[in-house]
Amino acid sequence: MNFIAIIPARYASTRFPGKPLALIEGKTMIARVYEQVCKAQCFHQVWIATDDERIENEAKRIGANVQMTSFEHRSGTERCAEVACKIQCSENDVVINIQGDEPFINPQQIIELTACFDNPDVDIATLLKKITDEKILHNPNVVKVVKDMHGKALYFSRSPIPFVRNAKPHMLDFYQHIGIYAYKVPVLQKIVKLPATPLELSEQLEQLRWLEHGFKIHTNVTDIESAVGIDTPEDLDLVVSLLKNNKL
């Protein structure tokens, strides 16, 4: 089994056009993501997947493998599936989808995700982290997860889950979703062909489509703090400020 990292990066972000090429203390965001992924040292190959020649040129400048992909993809998962096909991944390979706006992703989290595949029954995997801050629990921009006794995800939501009715809150563990995914190649090619589902459309979470169609998502719990994601120019300004003050 080989692990293949694919970093989807598109230029036409609604909230932050050109985001992958934004400079963070002299380096583009996509360059920083690529460097962090390579530090994991668990990959057979690392690829950048994009639909824009400017990002393609930056990938080549930093010495990264890059594949141009369709403009029509609705998600990074679909972009990963196209690249997996183009580079002829084998059925035994596992693709790890790492978002192109996570320039400070911890390589150890990636290694923790790959560990899920020590279990041969795992087809799709992702990471969770225990929630210790109530503000995170009630933040709709932070996706929450409930899992079964065997570590498989039962549901993802933007709402606080599970709802506490009879149990005392301190008796329950609440988890946030860390948004990196790993998929065995045959399963990746199947899930991108699935039609949209009601729960997915309601929550705007593509992983609910996979669950609704009967696929199992295995999880691993990390203790590592989530990386600082960048969705807007304001997020970028905050990150640059943190870096300058040695707080990141």
Would you give an account of this structure?
The protein is α/β, with parallel strands linked by helices and 248 residues long. It has nine helices and eleven strands. It has helices spanning 29-39, 53-61, 76-86, 107-114, 134-137, 185-191, 198-203, 207-212, 233-244; strands at 3-9, 23-24, 27-28, 45-50, 65-68, 94-97, 124-130, 144-147, 153-157, 175-184, 217-222. The strands form two sheets. Strands 1, 4, 5, 6, 7, 8, 9, 10 and 11 form a nine-stranded mixed beta sheet that branches. The protein has a two-stranded antiparallel ribbon with strand order 2-3. The protein starts with a strand and ends with a helix.
